[in-house]
Structures are given as structure tokens and as C-alpha cells.
Specification:
Blueprint (H helix, E strand, L loop, with lengths): L2 H16 L6 E3 L11 E23 L2 E22 L11 H11 L3 H9 L2 E11 L2 E2 L5 E13 L3 E4 L2 E2 L2 E8 L2 E8 L1
Parallel strand pairs: 1-2
Antiparallel strand pairs: 2-3, 3-6, 3-7, 3-8, 4-6, 5-6, 9-10
């Protein structure tokens, strides 16, 4: 699974379905632009293995060993939409977080969503819950927040590969009554 591909596909899908501008949808840990309301923060969490991983090793060149671990993963995508309520600006049906998340919820099972996620080797397992997390900003303003969780599965088997080098081999033993003992560079 290529996390960059996965995150880019999820971001593009969320921007398209929610109607929020791309610069107002960020990943957790990225700064939220000032005066960004409405905005959304996306988080990937609860990553778990489905079944058991398998690891294979290859040696494409002398001294280089490449382990590749394969296995399926599922995870939760949290979509945290934030708007602001101010006394002089009344809420309208199209200004709160439920408006944007409603559009996302409506698109979860659409053919466009399936096509977008299939290209990133993802599939939706099920939509989960929506949670309200409203909180006061100061004496008069309230940040209105709702978080919608979606369970996804990676349908790609390859989870990661790394390269390792063998620097030295130590060996000891006897061959035809000749004793060999020492370090040998490869």
C-alpha cells in the first residue's frame, strides 16, 4: 500500500464530495489556514492487520536483501468538519458542519467514490458514526465541529519493502581437517 497515493485519493475525494476548497481540507498535523472556516481535518487511525502477514526475501544484487511484507490492512478515516457560529451571523442550512458531512455521507456508496477508491486500491467497509464536538472559542463565538468516521480496507497486498545490506559474515567450522575461523567481508 502506498500511503501517499492513499492520502491523495482520500483528500481529492473529500474535497469533491464535501464541496470545500482543497486548501481548506488538511491532514491532521498540518496547519489549518487562518480564517479557514469552514474547514476539515482528515485523520487516518486504528490501522489493523486483516489475517496474517507474509514476508518474502529477494536478493536482486550481491549483498542486497529486499524483504517484502504482504498483508491486508483496514483503518478508520476521520473527517472532522469545523465551522464557526457568531452572534451576528446566523446559521443557515448550508453553513454548518452537518451540511458538508451530509454531502460526504450521501456520496459514500456512489459509483464515483468506488472508482476513486479502487484506483488507490481501497474499498469502503462501512460508514461509522458522526460525533458532535462543538466548543466555545471565546465569550461569543462557538466552533461547530462534527466528525464522521469511515472504515476502509486496503485491497493491495504489499504493505512495505525495505532494503538491507550484509556487511560482514562471520563463520567458524572445519573442512577436511582444516580449521577456518574469522570475519569475511562480502
Amino acid at each position: 500500500m502506498n500511503w501517499t497515493t492513499v492520502m491523495n485519493a482520500i483528500h481529492a475525494w473529500f474535497v469533491t464530495t464535501s464541496g470545500l476548497a482543497a486548501n481548506k481540507v488538511v491532514w491532521a498535523g498540518q496547519p489549518v489556514p487562518k480564517k479557514a472556516y469552514p474547514c476539515a481535518v482528515l485523520t487516518i487511525g486504528d490501522i489493523a492487520t486483516i489475517g496474517q502477514d507474509t514476508t518474502s526475501y529477494s536478493a536482486p544484487s550481491a549483498g542486497l536483501i529486499t524483504p517484502t511484507t504482504k498483508g491486508m490492512r483496514y483503518f478508520t478515516l476521520s473527517c472532522d468538519v469545523r465551522t464557526i457560529a457568531e452572534p451576528q451571523t446566523p446559521l443557515t442550512p448550508t453553513s454548518g458542519p452537518s451540511y458538508y458531512l451530509g454531502k460526504v455521507r450521501d456520496a459514500v456508496w456512489s459509483p464515483d467514490t468506488e472508482t476513486t477508491f479502487r484506483a488507490a486500491e481501497l474499498a469502503i467497509v462501512r460508514p461509522l458514526t458522526t460525533t458532535k464536538l462543538d466548543q466555545p472559542i471565546d465569550d461569543v463565538r462557538i466552533e461547530l465541529r462534527q466528525v464522521f468516521d469511515i472504515r476502509l480496507v486496503s485491497v493491495s497486498n504489499t504493505t512495505y519493502s525495505t532494503n538491507s545490506y550484509i556487511e560482514n559474515v562471520s563463520a567458524a567450522g572445519e573442512i577436511d581437517d582444516i580449521e577456518i575461523d574469522g570475519d569475511f567481508g562480502v
